[in-house]
From TrEMBL:
This is PQQ-dependent sugar dehydrogenase. Residues 1-31 form the signal peptide. It holds the Pfam family TrAA12. Residues 84-400 form the Pyrroloquinoline quinone-dependent pyranose dehydrogenase beta-propeller domain. It comes from Rhodococcus gannanensis. The keyword Kinase does not apply.
């Protein structure tokens, strides 16, 4: 059944997370950084419930499980592979979807998956256990479809899709999309121009990432880049919600009804501290490997996350993170007073590239994980050594309406030598209590089911 924000609100004071953080994420803040942890994710380990001494739980508290394959599915590069998941979980290659990117469950119990440069939105309908879902093309001929989300408008279901230069809506019924209308058009697609979407009530939120890595000109561009925008389902009220958001590709609404963003931060960040290392403004590999953190934060109209004038300062930890001035773009703080910015709620390891953000409140998987956020990382493109793809979970504190430190939930897509056989994009809770994970490199959708 379809998740609603009303259901989320009713349940936001519910369970605490069932997974306990058994460590902390340590981020380097000097030239002498710590090396990566055992799996390279930089994530804190989960607690493990394994009681069988034969279970080989790794340093992240996860246990390797060989991927099974549904009948009728080609496993491709995932053939014979295993994933590291919480002890007792099952892992299955559920469906072939070339270029699988973002996903959303429809009110009719099917799941739609965007495919980026394939130009297609695919509809998958679950069949019987162990069998591949039926697969049909819901939409084709699109221009780089990324974000997909369902909404209700005037008693009918609406599918919203973020294309390269526009935000588009269709009526959705009986497994078909009709009555196409463009909500916003003429958007730039250069740089970090892929459009993610989420919906709250009759408002669509969408990302418009930066055109470059660290260029302040994006803050005054027309339209302004490194932003999150909103527009009504009727196409009115297009306006900026938040600025200084380098590439806020992960978007979702939290259990308290507020908007959250997962931000892909800068590469090759110059050292921002005027300390006794003498490295101020230099490119320091140890610092660059672990900084700046990827940001998970609440945003509201008028929020500024500071890019590229302010840098998250992790010297005090990875939650409630303040900022320091960027040493090249804002050395004296004249361009922007970094102390006035809202602290980053949670830091994800640098260069993780978080693309998926999904809250669990009000979904069946909340019974296994508790209330929190699923953060899916695509993995780094230029870190040395590479940051691997992963799915993390960060628990929700209902008393403070905040997220806690991220915990490793799914790993194993990268080999010890840094090569990858898959790259995760998003993880969405399914109506059956399983987690459905897309992989645009292997062209697959995985079904991960908690043990009974």
């Amino acid at each position: 059944m379809q998740r609603t924000h009303a259901a989320r609100a009713r349940r936001r004071s519910g369970r605490s997370a069932a997974l306990a953080v058994s460590g902390v994420l340590v981020l380097a803040v000097s030239a002498c950084s710590n090396g990566p942890d055992g799996d390279g994710t930089g994530l804190a380990p989960t607690s493990t419930t394994a009681t069988d001494p034969a279970v080989d739980a790794g340093s992240d508290g996860l246990a390797p499980v060989e991927l099974t394959v549904t009948a009728g599915t080609d496993p491709g590069s995932a053939d014979g592979r295993s994933l590291n998941v919480p002890s007792g979980w099952n892992a299955e290659i559920w469906a072939d979807v070339p270029g699988a990117r973002l996903a959303a469950w429809a009110p009719d119990g099917s799941v739609v998956v965007s495919t980026g440069d394939q130009g297609v939105v695919t509809r998958l309908v679950p069949t019987s256990e162990g069998e591949a879902p039926s697969s049909t093309t819901l939409l084709d001929g699109l221009d780089d479809p990324q974000g997909v989300a369902f909404a209700e408008q005037n008693g009918r279901s609406v599918l919203v899709v973020g294309e390269a230069t526009r935000i588009v809506a269709w009526d959705y019924a009986d497994g078909s999309a009709s009555n196409r209308r463009i909500l916003v058009d003429g958007l730039p697609s250069s740089g970090h121009g892929k459009k993610a979407v989420t919906v709250r009530g009759d408002t669509v939120f969408y990302s418009l990432g930066s055109s470059a890595n660290r260029d302040p000109a994006d803050r005054t561009a027309d339209p302004q880049r490194a932003t999150v925008w909103q527009v009504g389902l009727d196409g009115t009220g297009n306006s900026v919600v938040a600025t200084g958001v380098r590439n806020g590709f992960g978007l979702d609404v939290g259990p308290d009804g507020t908007l959250f963003v997962a931000v892909n931060q800068s590469d090759n960040q110059p050292y921002p501290f005027r300390d006794d290392t003498g490295r101020y403004r230099e490119s320091v590999r140890g610092y660059v490997n672990e900084n700046p953190i990827e940001q998970i934060s609440r945003i509201a109209p008028g929020t500024d996350l500071g890019w590229p004038l302010c840098v998250p300062d992790t010297r005090g930890g990875i939650t409630d993170v303040p900022y320091v001035p960027d040493p090249m773009n804002n050395p004296d703080g004249h361009e922007l007073d970094c102390a006035t910015l809202p602290n980053t709620m949670v830091g994800l390891p640098a260069h993780s590239a978080p693309l998926g953000l999904e809250f669990t409140a009000g979904t069946p998987i909340e019974r296994a994980l508790g209330s929190g956020a699923l953060i899916t990382a695509h993995g780094s493109w230029n870190r040395e050594p590479p940051r691997p793809p992963s799915v993390a979970f960060t628990p929700w504190d209902a008393a403070t309406a905040t997220l806690g430190p991220p915990i490793a939930l799914v790993t194993g897509f990268q080999d010890d030598d840094g090569s990858r056989w898959g790259r995760t994009v998003t993880a969405v809770p399914g109506p059956d209590g399983s987690l459905y994970v897309t992989d645009d490199d292997a062209g697959l959708v995985y079904r991960l089911a908690p043990g009974t």
